[in-house]
Amino acid sequence: MDYVPSIYSDLAEEEWRVMQSWYGETDSSGHIGECAVPLMSLLQGLVMGNGIDRIVQLGTCSGYSALLLGFMLRRMSATNGLFSVDIGAELCAISRRWIARAGLESFVEIAQRDSTDRETVSAATDFLRGAPDLVIVDSSHESGATLSELYLWYPALAPGGIVVLHDVSHFAEGFDVTAEGGVRRACEQWRRENPSAESIILNGEARSMEAARALYKDACGVALLHKPGLPAAG
After folding, report:
1. pLDDT attached to residue 31
2. For 124-157, what is each residue's pLDDT tens digit?
């Protein structure tokens, strides 16, 4: 791109220095785990365009998106925040250190938990002081685990809430170490079983990082699952 996407250009100088340092450390250590700019930009539009401040993230990795989401929440003077879950102790420790360095502890909770465990839902709703409005799924990429996450977290969504499901393309099927079809297969099965949910898949047919891209440029693809209904008054 010959311009700076708003996920970066909106950052304050100190926030940008944190991100530069994050890139430097994760590049050298091999703990690289940032999601693509198209996905992060989509999340920015959802969060900041709608004042969403009850967010659950399944798959913290090294903390890239948790940092950027935390900056958004702070800019919004959010009342609640982000509950970010990862099963890996080392990754959680890395992410907590960066969240502390960025001064985002009031907005972001890094939880070392199993994203398919019902107790994790209770912990998330306790931290957020209510049902999440947005759940971001970008965790194991295994078909079975992803299906379990959808069964668990979609019912936990507030009415009108959205699940953003990363890695739903044919290309991303290869991320499933169980070789059972990845997030794409889980998403297709879940959609068949839940026809009342509004859903859309972007770039799901992508099969390569090198092939021509559709309008949405992330070859890993993304799905949006919308839970019908309106939140309760008050």
Report:
1. 75
2. 999 999 999 999 999 999 999 999 999 999 999 9
Nearest to 136 by CA among 59, 214, 234: 59
